[in-house]
Design the sequence.
């Protein structure tokens, strides 16, 4: 039987660093959480179609965080289809195109359906590179051994250069090295956060606000204590419905007519994704329309003409029978994800298959009605 992770006597209890790949971390870690994740992924990999295992393993091991999350999502989808009593094949030949879809799912009762997987993420390739450089710099800082303080970090400005971890650590020692924990604690008790010592590191385009935090006596006993005590981030505006919509549009017209239902499975990596974001992406952002007359104002609830399935002038992408929407179906979240099947009311090939056993949203009498179904964790046999 093909094995995903190498066999070893794992004794490594160190936490994951920012730049370490998820596969490398799960491979070495002796933590109970990592062990549980390894077990799940090994089980899913064992039942993945053999013709797709080598490509999938390459993405898991060398594809970076995005490649890893994408491959894990495909493992999940395959195991979900099998758990629902279907058969799967990967990258099958399709009618009238040289393109290959992710899965062909065959149901004994409902026939074939095409399933295509996509991640919805609000991070550009440029931002991925910037965050990787930041991770390298902060990983170096985390290795600093300090007796009296932890370090609070707020990256005010990133740079196109990698920066020097050695110079950053030297700067911290120069600024905070003579402080004693009792002195820092006294400042905090008297003034609060504003009383904590701070310093701003500026070099090669980087600007990082550093804060000294007093260590407690118990922290001296932690063998794997990190130097960084907290990281502060700026306010990020994520227009999640738009991110999901753009991810779906990349797949919506990919294969043309195939004579069977087509499902797009989308995994939103925004931790604040809600059902509202998915419905807005599919049917248009909810809004209120105001009408002004001589007697006053009236309002009615409506949608903007920007939905995947309806743009105001009429239905579109009718070949997409449904969207199976996941929120944070990743190992980092322990697969504590939700899944809802949204059915296209204008589909040219309506879907009625096994996925409707999950929570399903349908348009009824002009309203989107959600019917609770079997939780994803229950179908997959995962801890709730």
Sequence:
């Amino acid at each position: 039987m093909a094995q995903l992770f190498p066999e070893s006597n794992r004794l490594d209890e160190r936490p994951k660093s920012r730049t370490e790949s998820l596969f490398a971390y799960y491979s070495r870690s002796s933590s109970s959480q990592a062990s549980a994740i390894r077990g799940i992924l090994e089980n899913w990999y064992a039942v993945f179609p053999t013709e797709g295992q080598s490509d999938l393993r390459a993405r898991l091991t060398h594809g970076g965080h995005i490649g890893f999350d994408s491959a894990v999502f495909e493992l999940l989808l395959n195991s979900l289809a099998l758990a629902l009593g279907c058969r799967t094949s990967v990258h099958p030949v399709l009618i009238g195109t040289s393109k290959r879809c992710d899965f062909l799912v065959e149901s004994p009762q409902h026939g074939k359906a095409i399933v295509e997987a996509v991640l919805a993420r609000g991070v550009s390739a440029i931002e991925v590179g910037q965050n990787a450089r930041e991770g390298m710099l902060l990983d170096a800082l985390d290795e600093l051994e300090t007796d009296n303080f932890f370090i609070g970090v707020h990256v005010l400005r990133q740079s196109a250069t990698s920066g020097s971890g050695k110079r950053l650590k030297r700067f911290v020692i120069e600024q905070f090295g003579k402080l004693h924990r009792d002195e820092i604690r006294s400042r905090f008790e008297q003034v609060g956060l504003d009383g904590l010592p701070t310093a701003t590191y500026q070099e090669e385009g980087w600007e990082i606000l550093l804060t000294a935090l007093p260590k407690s006596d118990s922290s001296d006993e932690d063998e794997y204590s990190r130097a960084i005590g907290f990281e502060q981030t700026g306010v990020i505006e994520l227009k999640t419905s738009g991110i999901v919509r753009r991810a779906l549009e990349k797949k919506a017209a990919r294969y043309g007519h195939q004579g069977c239902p087509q499902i797009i499975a989308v995994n939103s990596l925004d931790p604040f994704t809600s059902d509202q974001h998915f419905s807005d992406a599919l049917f248009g952002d909810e809004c209120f329309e105001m009408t002004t007359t001589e007697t006053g104002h009236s309002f009615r609830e409506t949608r903007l003409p920007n939905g995947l399935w309806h743009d105001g002038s009429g239905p579109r992408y009718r070949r997409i029978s449904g969207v199976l929407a996941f929120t944070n179906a990743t190992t980092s979240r322990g697969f504590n994800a939700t899944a809802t099947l949204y059915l296209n009311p204008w589909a040219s090939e309506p879907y009625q298959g096994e996925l409707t056993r999950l929570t399903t949203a349908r348009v009824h009498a002009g309203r989107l009605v959600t019917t609770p179904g079997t939780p994803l964790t229950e179908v997959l046999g995962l801890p709730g």
Remarks:
- The chain has a mean pLDDT of 91.
- Residues 125-232 form one domain.
